[in-house]
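Final paragraph of the annual report: two paired records, presented back to back.
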Amino acid sequence: MANRDIIILPDKQLRLISKPVEKITPEIRALADDMFQTMYDAPGIGLAAIQVAVPLRLITMDLSKKEGEKEPRVFINPEILASSDEMSVYEEGCLSIPEYYEEVERPARVRVRFMDLEGVTREEDAEGLYATCIQHEIDHLNGVLFVDYLSKLKRDRVMKKFTKAAKLAAK
């Protein structure tokens, strides 16, 4: 397992649409392991492969609440099959947009289909934090960021702040 660099806004890779995982190989398993290590070290609860500069449809997630108890989950080629009309609001953050949090409204419940690391296709109903997190991470696979749900004014401020920080870091 290795820690990978998380790409940060305004990196244009974050806008790429990730490609499906064709086959679960040792490289895919190693990528998932690296993503877990990177996610836990950050710390975060979800990470899309594109956030470590790998444009594949792979997500790692761990929503465990208790310290020391881990519930790592891998979602390969995830897709949302259905969304509720009912909406919910959660304060979201993103490892690619560090130390910025904002309330985002999303469907309260979704049905998701994905493949696990064993190659088994699964369907699950998600609600609460799980629904929010899976939608947030699938958005990453489609080149969408949570700031895209904000008002133009807030989004422009965030983009300006991170673009300025990137220019300063490059000097």
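The closing record of the year follows.
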Amino acid sequence: MIHPVILCGGSGTRLWPVSRKSYPKQFSPLMGEESLFQASLRRLSGPGFGAPIVLTNTEFRFIATEQLASLGISDGQVLIEPASRNTAPAVLCAALSLEATPEALMLVAPSDHVIADTDAFHAAVALGTQAAEAGRLVTFGIRPDRPETGYGYLELAHPGQSGAQPLERFVEKPCAAAAAEMLASGRFLWNAGIFLFRVCDILAAYEAHAPALIGPCRAALSEGRADLGFFRLGEAAFAACPDLSIDYAVMEKSDALSVVPFDGGWNDLGSWDAVWRELGPDADGLTTQGSVTAIDCSQSMLRSDDENMHLVGIGLKNIAAIAMRDAVLVANLDESQRVKEVVARLRTLNAPQAEGFPRCHRPWGWYETLSLAPRFQVKRIMVHPGAKLSLQSHVHRSEHWIVVSGTAKVTVDGTVTLLSENQSTYIPLGAVHRMENPGKVDMHLIEVQTGVYLGEDDIIRYEDIYART
């Protein structure tokens, strides 16, 4: 049985504006109806795979569990990282959680990559399994098709050999000239950041090469606590971990490395140029997604993520045009690696679009702001069936709620009312209130807030089924 360990963090800067810090790319449906995270879960499930271990942070915990549930996965374990410490502590905590089964195999994978051929990937994992069961630390390398400077590389000890083979060394991201030389040599693979090993072997590797991580990670598990369906790692102990990747902390220093070459269609979607290639441009080199009209455009991608935003391109060539309700990106495809510079610039301007997503996901559903001005705000709110918001009050604002679909159960100062479509209610300033969905379909309403302060921190919670009080 292989235990999938799915890494689900990220800063959300490379595919802005669709990916942002509050909603990074793995949760977005970049390539179709499902998110990259959901596609990863499907790929790492089925015969031979155990329940997944998902490592994410507290901001993404409910998004992750919602997408797990959408696939019918109810036995997955979600470990909450209280601080960003890169992949070495995350993988070690997962390994320590499996320490009782030392011979068990762990397959560590990012959640934001595309692998087109699942059968070929499973075949590659099968090739790596024998080596992992023999005590090797196995990584998977992608056969390069271009001199890419955005990836790290793996040098093969015996080019041309099939199956799992000895790995000579890891190579940092090269310059263009070095990347071209490595491609021509046939000795190098892209580093996909996917690993397979037994629990006992990776723990021994940490003991040998990164012993400073062992104590804090053990303490993070022992001091951690269950919280609803999650397990929160101990905050102080985890924060004491050094910020290290598993490549640097362990893999590059080990003499028990093997690599399985893979050419089944892999892409880490690290730029809009990569997304454009993965989508499969038509004969004119054009890809379109969403509500889009392209006239005489070539070698370009046009994408609209808002049903009310129709994007039109005329005479575009080598352009990425990405439209959302609150932000639009227009960039030369060859310069799309520089999108993270945009995010850095927006942060200096304190622009909310730098990190905040227009649709804010919550454990009960989501909300988005339709209009915001001094003293009033209009929101659209969706509540899942059976879900309820916290029992709360506000110090600085009153609210009007208008149900537009479904049924709302509303509590205001102890009085409970059922509202159906086209009915409304008023929440006076200071009133203790709650909204919930008692029905079997999503409930949508429009909320109009009025007051001197409309920030999300103007909430006093008295009771909350999601343990946010």
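The chain has a mean pLDDT of 95. This concludes the annual technical report; the extension proposal builds directly on these records.
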